[in-house]
Write a structure and sequence with these properties.
This protein has 314 residues and is mainly β. It has one domain: Neuraminidase (6 Propeller). Helices cover 4% and strands 47% of the residues. It is built from 1 helix and 24 strands. Strand 10 and strand 11 form a beta hairpin. The longest helix has 13 residues. The N and C termini lie far apart (49 Å).
Amino acid sequence: MRIVVFLYAFLSILEAGVVSVNIAPKLENNRYMNIKILDQKQLSYNELQGVKFAELSDVTYHTKTDTLYFVGDKGSLFAFRARFGKKIEHLEPLRASRLKSKKGKKFKKWKRDSEGLTLDGEGRLLISFEGDAKIGWFHKNSQKYGSLIRNYTIPKVLRKKKNYRSKNKSLEALAWHKKYGILTAAEWPLKKDDKKRQTIYALSGKKWHFKAEPEGRSSLVAMEVMDDDNLLVLERSYTGILEPFVVTLKKVNIKNCRKKMCPTEVLAKMNSHKGWSVDNFEGLAKVGFDRYVMVSDNGDNFFQKTLLIYFEVL
C-alpha cells in the first residue's frame, strides 16, 4: 500500500507542471553573498505541443509581452507567459516548436545544438549554436514560430571548428548590449588562449577578457547585461560524480578593463558539497531591475530536474 501511495504522489509531481522547490541551505532572509533568492520552481512537463520539454540550455525574457522564452539544446523552443514581482507570480506555457530552416524544415541532428538565447533591442529572438557555430534570428510570434529568418556574420576566429577545444565547446553564451550589440562567448577558451582566460566577443570584433574561476573545468555557460551595462556571467564546474558541482554567478566589469583583462566580482558561489542542491544550470535572463532567473538542463534523465531560480543581485 505504501508503494502505491508513493507512486501516486510521485506521478502527481511529474504531472504538476510547476512546483516549488528549495535548492539552498538554510539562509538568513534568503540572502547569500551578494544575491537574494526570491523564488525557486521545478518545471515538470513531459511534452508541450508535441515537443519534448527537456535539456533547456538558455532563457530570455521579453518585458513588453511578459513572455519567457526557453531554448533546448536539441533544437527546441518554448514560450511561457510569465510575470515577476516579489515571487514568480505567473508561469504558463504558451507555445512550443522545433527550430527550423528558412524553408520550414527541421534542422538536421548535427545542426540543431542550440545553446544561447537572447532578445535584441528590437525584440528579435536570437539563438547561438555549438557544433556548427553560428548565430541566427528566428521567428517568435507567428505561424513561422521557431523558423530561421537570417544568420549573422560572426568574427572570423569563431567560424572554424578547429579553433575550439572541442565541437561541443563553442558558442554557448549569448547576450545583447545596447552599446556593443550582439555578444557571444565559447564555453571554454579557444585553443590558442590560456585555459583560464575567458573571452567575450562582440560581432563588431571588440573583445573583453576575464579570468575564469579556479575550479576545475570551469566553463562559461550563460551571460546577461546588467543595469549598469556590465555583464553577469554564469560559470559551471563539474569534474566527476564524487566531486562538487559548483555554480558561480559573477559580475564582469567590462567598462574598467586594464591590460586587456576585466575585473570581476563573485556574487554567489553555490557548491553541492556545501548544502546547495545545484543542478546543471545553463541559462540566465534579466527579468527586472537587478532581477534575474537562471534555468538548469535536466539532461533528459530521471535523476536531474529543470529548475528555475528567481533572484536579485544586491
